[in-house]
Specification:
- The chain is α+β, with helices and mostly antiparallel strands.
- The chain is built from nine helices and 13 strands.
- Strands 11-10-9-12-13 form a five-stranded antiparallel beta sheet. Strands 2-1-3-4 form a four-stranded parallel beta sheet.
- Strand 3, helix 3 and strand 4 form a beta-alpha-beta unit.
- The longest helix is centred in the middle third of the chain and has 16 residues.
- The chain is globular, with a radius of gyration of 20 Å.
- It starts with 12 loop residues before the first strand and ends with a helix.
């Protein structure tokens, strides 16, 4: 294994972190490679759990697609704490990889989807009716996520089996009402990237409805998404800013943030997820976004001692 000195002169070295299943990055993330090279930054792709990587040799380590961490979260968070130049930082990763952060954001006044929590060993009785989404509190790429119509007896059984399956694996289950507006409006993801003055809005995309029915326990790294460019409304942008204002430790340390919103029952946007660890950034859907991502890296390199 070659030992790399911290660059004192010449090109800054930046690692783009992925998982073994995506050794060449997600195609969308590859769009930042040319803009980084154009700015004199040597970007290298590295797998987070590859023991041969010397993380201390990089000027910046950028989390991108380590999407296999969900079943090994403790190991992933422990690894993050060993990487001094990680963005987003390790304490943010620890907080954001357990979706119980939604309860904290809600308590801080951010509008969030109402969420119930079932810890392993807790009994769970499905609500009498209505459509609900069940998912683990630690997950990536919509794995182990299902949608249930609890007026349907078969769905009730499948929902109970889903909770049992997660509980047996020692995982916390989230229970959320399925918001019908996602079928028509879809989900809006607002992307924020670091600039010279901190995090700034970059672009937005629409994700079509993905949850067609119950989770039957099939394994996949992530579910395919139907993505379109979208213009965020002033109300969506204001809601996203409210969510970001509630992030512990502030947003100045963040390289990126993705705020996923859907219309609530009254049409006002509510938070589904705040993605600060390994969100797809969808830079291929907005003019100039790959360059803005490269500039975010430049901004963070400029802060390094």
């Amino acid at each position: 294994m070659t030992h790399h000195q911290q660059s004192t002169r010449g090109e800054p070295r930046v690692a783009l972190v992925t998982c073994a299943a995506l050794p060449d990055l997600d195609p969308d993330d590859r769009l930042v490679l040319a803009p980084l090279a154009a700015r004199g930054i040597a970007a290298e792709v590295a797998v987070w759990d590859d023991p041969a990587v010397d993380w201390s040799g990089y000027d910046l380590v950028v989390l991108r697609s380590p999407w296999d961490y969900a079943l090994r979260r403790d190991e992933f968070v422990a690894w993050a704490r060993t990487v001094p130049t990680l963005v987003n930082p390790a304490d943010v990763v620890a907080w954001n990889t357990d979706k119980r952060y939604l309860a904290e954001l809600s308590a801080a006044g951010a509008p969030t989807v109402p969420t119930g929590w079932v810890a392993p060993g807790d009994g769970w009785m499905p609500p009498a009716g209505g459509e609900y989404v069940l998912k683990p509190a630690v997950s990536a790429g919509s794995q182990d996520t299902g949608r249930y119509d609890l007026t349907d007896p078969e769905h009730r059984e499948l929902a109970e089996a889903h909770v049992r399956r997660l509980s047996a694996a020692g995982r916390v289950t989230m229970v959320q009402p399925y918001l019908d507006a996602v079928d028509t409006a879809g989900e809006t993801a607002l992307l924020f990237l670091a600039g010279p003055d901190g995090l700034a809005f970059s672009h937005a995309i629409r994700k079509g409805p993905m949850l067609t029915g119950p989770d039957r326990g099939e394994a996949a790294l992530y579910k395919e998404e139907r993505i379109d460019a979208r213009t965020a409304t002033p109300e969506q942008r204001a809601t996203a800013e409210r969510v970001l204002a509630a992030v512990p430790g502030g947003t100045d340390r963040l390289l990126y943030a993705r705020v996923d919103l859907i219309p609530g029952p009254d049409g006002a946007p509510v938070l589904v997820e705040l993605e600060l660890t390994e969100p797809s950034l969808f830079v291929g859907y907005a003019d100039g976004a790959p360059d803005r991502l490269a500039e975010a890296v430049v901004a963070h390199l400029a802060r390094r001692p």
